[in-house]
């Protein structure tokens, strides 16, 4: 829910424009902590009418080109955010300030829209491994096959040695920490 209703905003804007109270006194009269929102409402009302003051029901998606135009207008002309907002019929100077900041840090790429939330979980397995294998040349495929056969051969030799004489195999492959613990200088 919005902090201030549309009727309240409209009432304060009209009272400011046709009354004799300033921003601070009007804000104080209605127990507002700051006069800044009132200033923004009046400014928006002057440039866009009452439709600019009303709360938007849906967030508007701006194109990258629109964002770039607004940012470049601000940077090249030296116009304030408020002036640029009026020029491009935006309602929030903070939005433009964020665009300028992102543009300075990341360039045009930063202004592109990104999907929000977590990526969806795909039920299909990724096929990236198959693509990598397909890009190998015939020679690379043969080298890979040779390496796999060498590994398999080594494994089979060790398995055969273990089966023939398990005690000797275990003695040969004891961990070195046991022999270190028998030393005299070891604490």
Describe the structure.
The chain has three domains: 1-55; 58-112; 137-179. The mean pLDDT is 78. It starts with 5 loop residues before the first helix and ends in a 6-residue tail after the last helix. It is elongated. It has helices spanning 6-18, 23-29, 36-48, 50-53, 64-77, 81-87, 93-106, 128-134, 138-164, 166-172, 176-181. By secondary structure, the chain is mainly α.
Main features:
mainly alpha, 187 residues, Transposase, 11 helices
Q: What is the beta-strand fraction?
A: under 5%
Mean pLDDT, all residues: 78
Flag low-confidence runs: none
- What is the CA-atom radius of gyration, in angstroms? 36 Å
Helix content: 55-70%
By secondary-structure content and strand pairing, the structural class works out as: mainly alpha
Number of contiguous helices: 11
Strand runs, count: 0
Major sheet, described briefly? none
Spell the H/E element sequence: HHHHHHHHHHH
The total domain count is: 3
Calculate the terminal CA-CA distance, rounded to whole Å.
70 Å
Form type: elongated
């Amino acid at each position: 829910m919005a902090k201030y209703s549309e009727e309240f905003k409209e009432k304060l804007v009209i009272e400011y424009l046709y009354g004799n109270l300033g921003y601070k006194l009007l804000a104080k009269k209605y127990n507002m902590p700051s006069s800044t929102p009132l200033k923004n409402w009046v400014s928006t009302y002057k440039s866009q009418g009452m439709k600019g003051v009303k709360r938007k029901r849906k967030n508007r998606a701006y194109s990258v080109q629109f964002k770039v135009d607004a940012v470049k207008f601000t940077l090249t002309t030296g116009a304030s955010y408020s002036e640029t907002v009026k020029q491009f019929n935006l309602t929030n100077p903070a939005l433009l300030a964020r665009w300028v900041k992102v543009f300075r840090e990341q360039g045009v790429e930063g202004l592109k829209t990104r999907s929000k939330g977590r990526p969806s979980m795909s039920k299909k397995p990724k096929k990236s491994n198959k693509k990598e294998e397909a890009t190998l040349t015939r020679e690379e495929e043969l080298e890979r096959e040779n390496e796999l056969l060498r590994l398999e051969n080594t494994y089979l030799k060790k398995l055969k040695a273990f089966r023939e004489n398990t005690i000797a195999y275990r003695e040969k492959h004891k961990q070195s920490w046991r022999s270190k613990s028998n030393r005299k200088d070891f604490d």
